[in-house]
Design goal:
Maf protein, about 30% helix, about 200 residues, single chain, seven-stranded mixed sheet, 6 helices, alpha/beta
C-alpha cells in the first residue's frame, strides 16, 4: 500500500532562501507572494515578527484551499532595535558597523495556518560578528549582498566571513527557522511530511 503524497504547503513568501530550505527538507510547497503590507508598529521585535508572519499567512488564505499556509518574517535585533532591510548602501554600512564585534539576535516569526487552526511561534538565534574594519564593511557593501537582507547581511554567502560564531538554528539566520517548522509539522501532521 502506497502512502499518499503530502499536500504541498502554500509558502506566503518570494524569498529564494525560504524556498531552498523547504527543498532541502523535502517539504513540498507552492509559492505565492503575500498581499500584506509590513507596518512596523510593534515596539517589541518578537511581537513584530509574529504579527508579520501571521499577516503574510492570512493574506493568501483564499488561495490555499485545503493546503496548510506557511508565513515567516525575520528581523535582526541589536540592543532591542530591529534592523529590517536596508534602503541603500549607506544604511547597510551603518547596520554592519552597529553589528561589528557584537552579538545580535536573529528572530523569526513563523505561522502555520489551516482552515481549522493557526499556530504562531518564533525562534531566536544569537549571532556574533567579528570586529569589522572599514575596509571589511566597504568591500561587503560593494559586493551588494546586503540588498533585501534583514540586518544587511547573508550568512549563507559572503556574509559568512563577517560571523565569528552562532548559537542556535543556523537555517533561522538564513531565513526560515527549520527546527521550529519541523517540530510543528511533527506535532500537527505526524508522519505526513516525514516528521513525527
Amino acid at each position: 500500500m502506497s502512502v499518499p503524497p503530502a499536500p504541498p504547503l502554500l509558502l506566503a513568501s518570494v524569498s529564494p532562501q525560504r524556498r531552498a530550505i523547504l527543498e532541502q527538507l523535502y517539504i513540498p510547497f507552492d509559492l505565492v507572494a503575500p498581499r500584506y503590507h509590513e507596518d512596523d508598529v510593534e515596539d517589541d521585535p518578537v511581537a513584530l515578527v509574529r504579527t508579520h508572519a501571521l499577516g503574510k499567512a492570512r493574506s493568501v488564505a483564499r488561495q490555499a484551499g485545503d493546503r496548510p499556509i506557511l508565513g515567516v518574517d525575520t528581523a535582526v535585533v541589536v540592543d532591542g532595535t530591529a534592523f529590517g532591510k536596508p534602503s541603500g548602501p549607506e544604511q547597510a554600512e551603518r547596520m554592519l558597523e552597529a553589528l561589528s564585534g557584537r552579538t545580535h539576535e536573529v528572530i523569526s516569526g513563523l505561522c502555520l495556518l489551516t482552515r481549522a487552526w493557526e499556530e504562531v511561534a518564533h525562534e531566536t538565534t544569537a549571532v556574533t560578528f567579528r570586529t569589522l574594519t572599514p575596509r571589511d564593511v566597504a568591500h561587503y557593501v560593494h559586493e551588494g549582498e546586503w540588498r533585501d537582507r534583514a540586518g544587511a547581511y547573508a550568512i549563507q554567502g559572503l556574509g559568512a566571513g563577517l560571523v565569528e560564531r552562532i548559537e542556535g538554528d543556523y537555517l533561522n539566520v538564513v531565513g526560515l527557522p527549520a527546527a521550529l517548522l519541523v517540530r510543528i509539522l511533527a506535532e500537527r501532521f505526524a508522519g505526513v511530511y516525514g516528521f513525527g
